[in-house]
Design goal:
Layout (H helix, E strand, L loop, with lengths): L5 H8 L10 E4 L12 E4 L8 H18 L3 E4 L3 H12 L3 E5 L10 H6 L5 E3 L18
């Protein structure tokens, strides 16, 4: 699950890790469907903290997807849809993995900081950002 742009590109770079698994890709851009082949693909409303009504709509869409698909794990590269998925998924007993944006070299992303409170595992692309709660295992994206 990811937002548009760089978040989506980073998620696609992890696609090989999902080989042999049943995967549902969720993003905010319908045109990205062609990038995931035959994999299940879902679209949620684009939203941010400045569009609160849209954020509520997106959260309900994410919840609906989680209840319908019943994933065993959520992997996200952020931002808003990923945070919502991690927050809701954790409460539904789904394992969650947050991969923070490679673009955030000086500090964790805002959504990554929020996700740390909910995600089972948080990964950073930058060794100097690792901590007891944020892991670094090399550049994973």
């Amino acid at each position: 699950m990811s937002s548009r742009g760089g978040h989506w590109i980073q998620l696609l770079r992890l696609k090989e890790a999902f080989a042999g698994q049943q995967v549902t890709f969720v993003t905010t851009v319908p045109e990205y469907r062609s990038m995931v082949g035959d994999a299940d693909f879902r679209v949620v409303t684009e939203a941010s903290r400045s569009t609160k009504i849209r954020m509520v709509i997106m959260a309900l869409q994410v919840l609906w997807i989680l209840l319908r698909v019943r994933p065993s794990a959520i992997v996200t590269t952020g931002a808003a849809p990923g945070f919502i998925a991690v927050m809701l998924g954790k409460r539904l007993g789904i394992r969650t993995l947050w991969v923070d944006s490679i673009a955030n070299a000086d500090e964790m992303s805002m959504s990554g900081k929020l996700a740390m409170r909910h995600a089972d595992t948080v990964l950073t692309q930058w060794e100097h950002l690792s901590s007891d709660r944020v892991q670094f295992h090399g550049a994973v994206v």
